Amino acid sequence: MIVAGVTEELRARFGKARRVAALTGAGISAESGVPTFRGGGGAAIWEWRGRPVSELSSAELLASDPVTVWEWFDHRRGLLRDLRPNAGHAALAGWEARFPDFLLATQNIDGLHAAAGSRKVVELHGSIRHGRCLRCARRVVLPDSLPELPPRCACASPLRPDVVLFGEMLPEGAFERAEAAASACELFFVVGTSALVYPAALLPRLARRAGACVIEVNPEETELTPVVDATILGRAGDVLPAFLTPGV
Ligand SMILES: [Zn+2]
After folding, report:
1. Would you state the pLDDT for residue 36?
2. Nearest CA to 211 among 173, 232, 184, 237?
3. What is the whole-number distance in angstroms between the Cα of residue 129 and the centre of ligand 1?
4. Phi-psi region for residue 228, left (φ > 0), alpha (ψ -120 to 50) or beta?
């Protein structure tokens, strides 16, 4: 079913649900102005300083030239500095208190869900706002400007960006938490992602198989559209608040 807005039926399901999970991707961040790599609104970045993004964000380059990788992520943190969460992020943050059982999994590394007040968030691909020590594994909040590259941990070892690079596995336990929520929920939202990146792409399919009603929110149809229960065509910032505000 493809609809242009939240139907009464979907709103009623939402009103009765107790176990809800959501997966978000680049589209919801693009609504806040975050540049994306895989479409979804916003300006797509493919190259920086003449190097492809796939190389800059790779485990291989981190091993051979960590300073360039840090410069790239520092540049991206700079782009985020003045951006704010939007009404879609705010709606998801509010849902945490509404449902007894709620989990948000995101493919985004920009930290905008946390900035909107979400606490039950699994950042599947890590966070650009954090570094991680290569020796003691401590996770460190990065200051706005870094005194040296690579920055160092309190233990004096270099930090790496706390994000999942091309060629790396997801952080331990992250996907498992999202998987458990997807398998146990009644309602599963897929927001602003075409869910082409694995393993995140498995989550809506897993939720569907476990019997959840899967609702996609995206401005355009995606490869998921044929496999979900409902696709609401629209922006996250317009559609998600409308679940609680009839008539919008
Ligand atoms: Zn350390």
Report:
1. 77
2. 184
3. 17
4. beta
pLDDT band at 171 (very low <50, low <70, confident <90, very high): confident
pLDDT band per the 50, 70, 90 thresholds, residue 38: low
Catalytic (active site) residue 75: no
CA-nearest of 61, 80, 39, 63 to 197 is: 39
**3-class DSSP assignment, residue 227:** helix
What angle do helix axes 174-184 and 202-209 make, rounded to 10 degrees? 30
Q: Ligand 1 center to residue 232 CA distance, Å?
A: 45
CA 162 vs. chain centroid, Å, equals: 14
Can you give the pTM of this predicted structure? 0.93
Catalytic residue among 75, 89, 113, 125: 125
pLDDT tens-digit series, residues 103-112: 999 999 999 9
Q: If you average pLDDT over residues 177-181, what whole number do you get?
A: 97
Ligand 1 center–CA 154 separation, angstroms: 6
Nearest of 45, 91, 28, 35 to residue 219 by alpha carbon: 28
Residue bearing tokens 């479409």: 39
Backbone angles phi, psi at 220, to 5 degrees: -130, 160
Strand order in the sheet with 121-123: 2-3, 230-233, 213-218, 187-191, 19-24, 101-106, 121-123
- Which CATH number is associated with domain 2-39+84-126+170-242? 3.40.50.1220
Domain ranges in the chain are: 2-39+84-126+170-242, 47-82+133-163
- Rounded to the nearest angstrom, the distance between the alpha carbon of 62 and the centre of ligand 1 is 17
